[in-house]
Design brief:
InterPro entries: THDP-binding, Xul5P/Fru6P_PKetolase, Xul5P/Fru6P_PKetolase_N, Xul5P/Fru6P_PKetolase_ThDP_BS. The protein is of the alpha/beta class and 312 residues long. The protein is built from ten helices and seven strands.
Length: 312
C-alpha cells in the first residue's frame, strides 16, 4: 500500500488539497477582478477592483479541484508519472494561478515572482497584458495541449500516452466538450490504442457554453452506463458547494486508484460531478461580476467570495 493510502497521511493530504484548491481559486478570482489589495488584507473597496473585469469563472472551481489533486497525486510514490492536460482553453486563468504557485510563470516573466508584488503584476496583466494571454498556454503546467479548438484534448492525451509507457495522462475535459465529435471519437479510440494509459477526468458541472449539457441531465446510473457502453470503467464523485475534508479525501482516493488502474492497463474515467461556479456565483460561464465599481451588490458578493477562499 502506497503512502497516499495511509489513514494518518490521507488526513494531511486532505488538508493540503483543500488549501491548494482554495489558493488556486482565490488566485483565479484575483486575476479576474483585482487591481490592488491582491492579498485581500482589508475589505475590498472600489479602488481595488478592475473597472471592466473579463474572463471565465464557471470552470474555475472544478478545474482548480482537479489540478490540486493531480499535483498532490503526482507526489505519491506510485511509480508512474502523472501528466494533467487542460482541455478547456478558458481554464487559462487557473493554469496561470498554478504556474504562479509553482514559480513556472516567473521563469517566463520575472515580474511574476511569488510575492505580493508578483501577484499584483499577475492580476494587472490579466486578461491581455502579456504574451501568455488568458487562454491555456503550452509553456505553463498542464498546457501541453495547445488547444485552438474544442474537443481535441482527449485525443491529444492518447497520443501523448503512446510516447511513454511510464506515464498516465489526465485530460481534464468538460461535459460540454464531451459533445464534440473529436471527444466522442476518443472514447472509442482506446479499442485500437490498447496500450495508452489515459485517465480522463470529466468536469461534470451540468453546462456547456450555450446551456445545459447532455451528460449533466443524466443521473449517475445513466452516466455510468454510457461510459461502460463505450468500454470505460466509470467512477462518479460528487462535490458539494461547500466541500469538506471528507470530499477531498474521497476524490483523492478515487484519483490515485484510477491512476494505478490506468498504469495496469485498465480504462477508467472519473466523473467530477459539481455545480458550475460553486464557491462563488453559481451557473455563470464568464464572470458575472462585471460592474464592481458601479454596483455595490456585486462588490459585496466579491468580498463574500474571496474571504473564505484565501487559505490563511
Amino acid at each position: 500500500m502506497n503512502d497516499c493510502w495511509e489513514p494518518e497521511v490521507s488526513v494531511d493530504l486532505a488538508h493540503r488539497a483543500d488549501a491548494l484548491w482554495r489558493a488556486l481559486t482565490y488566485l483565479s478570482v484575483a486575476q479576474l477582478h483585482l487591481r490592488s489589495n491582491v492579498l485581500a488584507a482589508n475589505c475590498l473597496d472600489v479602488s481595488d477592483v478592475k473597472e471592466r473585469p473579463a474572463g471565465h469563472w464557471g470552470t474555475v472551481p472544478g478545474t482548480a479541484w482537479a489540478l490540486a489533486h493531480a499535483g498532490l497525486a503526482a507526489g505519491c510514490r506510485i511509480g508512474v508519472q502523472i501528466v494533467p492536460v487542460l482541455g478547456a482553453g478558458h481554464a487559462g486563468v487557473v493554469q496561470r494561478a498554478l504556474a504562479w504557485l509553482t514559480r513556472d510563470i516567473a521563469k517566463i516573466d520575472a515580474r511574476y515572482g511569488r510575492d505580493a508584488d508578483g501577484l499584483a503584476a499577475l492580476a494587472a496583466a490579466f486578461p491581455d497584458g502579456d504574451a501568455l494571454g488568458s487562454e491555456v498556454h503550452p509553456e505553463l503546467p498542464a498546457g501541453a495541449y495547445m488547444g485552438g479548438w474544442l474537443g481535441g484534448a482527449f485525443a491529444f492525451a492518447q497520443g501523448m500516452a503512446l510516447d511513454s509507457p511510464n506515464r498516465v495522462v489526465l485530460p481534464i475535459i468538460g461535459d460540454g466538450e464531451c459533445e464534440t465529435p473529436s471527444t466522442a471519437a476518443s472514447w472509442l479510440a482506446h479499442r485500437v490504442l490498447a496500450n495508452t494509459r489515459v485517465l480522463p477526468v470529466v468536469h461534470l458541472n451540468g453546462h456547456r457554453m450555450g446551456g445545459p449539457s447532455l451528460l449533466g441531465a443524466m443521473n449517475d446510473e445513466q452516466v455510468s452506463a454510457y461510459a461502460r457502453g463505450l468500454g470505460w470503467e466509470p467512477v462518479v464523485v460528487e462535490v458539494g458547494a461547500g466541500p469538506g475534508l471528507a470530499e477531498h479525501a474521497e476524490f483523492h482516493r478515487v484519483l490515485v486508484a484510477g491512476v494505478e488502474a490506468s498504469a495496469r492497463g485498465a480504462h477508467r474515467v472519473v466523473f467530477l460531478r459539481c455545480v458550475k461556479g460553486w464557491s462563488g456565483p453559481i451557473g455563470a460561464h464568464k464572470t458575472p461580476l462585471t460592474d464592481l465599481a458601479g454596483d455595490p451588490g456585486q462588490l459585496q458578493t466579491l468580498n463574500g467570495q474571496v474571504r473564505p477562499m484565501w487559505p490563511v
